[in-house]
Amino acid sequence: MKKTVQVLAVIFTFSFNLNGQEYYPFPTENVFWNVYLEFSLSESPADTVLLRYTLRGDTAINQVTYKKLCIESGDTINPIVKPIGGLREEEKQIFFVGQDYIGYNHDEELLLYDFSKGIGDTIFHDNYDTFYSVVENIDTVDISGENRKRFKIKTCNNSYFEDEEYWIEGIGSIKNSLLGHITMIPTCCYQYWEHVCFRVIGGIEYLNPSFDECFPSCFFSSVEPLINGSEIRVYPNPSSERLIIENNSTEKELSVKIYDLNGRIISNNLLFEQKNEVELPLEKGFVVVKITNLKGQLLANKKIIIR
Questions:
Q1: Domain boundaries along the sequence of the chain
Q2: What sign results for the dihedral spanned by CA atoms 161, 163, 168, 169?
Q3: What is the pLDDT of residue 10?
Q4: Inter-residue contact 260 to 80 (CB < 8 Å)
Q5: Chain segment 152-178, per-residue pLDDT in tens
Q6: I need a labelling partner for 236 at 20 to 30 A (CA). Which of 16, 125, 203, 291 fits?
Q7: 32 backbone φψ class: left, alpha, beta (φ>0; ψ -120 to 50)
Q8: In angstroms, rounded to a whole number, what is the distance separating the alpha carbons of residues 152 and 179?
Q9: On the CB side of 57, how many CA atoms lie within 13 Å of its CA?
Q10: How many H helices and E strands in the chain?
Q11: How far is the CA of 113 from the CAs of 19, 84, 165, 269, 291, in angstroms?
């Protein structure tokens, strides 16, 4: 479940001289950023609550070589991969070209991060002074046993948006996540995006302390069920083809929605019996089953593994 207290600090912080700190470069492959849509007031909100960014090989954009930035959807074993742009690094600067969170296309290259700057420096992300950030402080954090610089950043967007941000070498933003601070509608006001985790093949390197895992069920409901979990049974778990939903509560009609890894509804059923069967998708991985009464009040929220 999502913790009620938002914590941005990493456990270990060091105060020694940072000038001789070894630089940790930005990743080039086999990495993943998970980004959560907390809420949206946009007239055209995103159709998912979770974006999964990854790097997949090289690509040429405007005759420049980049690492191909992609969005994954579907299961994690055989995901659907959609290229949306590219990242490249030069002298501790990370450049980006492509689509941002809300699908806005940045045809010109933007300076996404600049880890060469010092305290008090300003980072201009484009050639028009539209997006800029100011480095307020630099310290270090322990990431998988390695000390990396962490930059406290104040981001400014068209003078309408100012926010406190944190960047870590080799990861990027640990608040608004990978592209948050250059998005035309930033992570406030209309849409609020939040970094969940940065993971590599083999494990998680940074997990937002507000969450307990990269795919927490709180993506699909941030409130507690109204009734005791034993009154509605959802089994078997793991499962393969279908679920049994057993209703022992006083509610006579149940609404059952099944969500995939990206928060999209893949099944929507009304159940009226005490014992019901619901078919599952064939893809391996996991889904979240959200059960409400007809008033929309949450009765159960279960993560089901599909094998």
A1: 13-219, 229-306
A2: positive
A3: 37
A4: no
A5: 998 776 444 456 789 999 999 998 888
A6: 203
A7: beta
A8: 16
A9: 5
A10: 0, 21
A11: 19, 18, 12, 45, 42
Say what the pLDDT of residue 114 is.
Answer: 97
CB atoms under 10 Å from CB of 212, counted, come to 13
Instruction: Give the type of residue at 100.
Output: D
Q: Which two tokens stand for residue 89?
A: 């690094």
- Angle (CA) 55-13-139 rounded to 5° is 70
Domain 229-306 in CATH 2.60.40.3080: yes
Q: What gap in Å lies between CA 303 and CA 214, rounded to an integer?
A: 13
| Distance in angstroms between the alpha carbons of the first and the last residue of the chain | 23
Secondary structure (DSSP) of 3-50: -SS-----S-EE-S--TTPPP-PPP-SSEEEEEEEEEE--SS--S-SE
As to burial, measured by CB atoms within 10 angstroms (0-12 exposed, 13-18 middle, 19+ buried), residue 93 is: middle
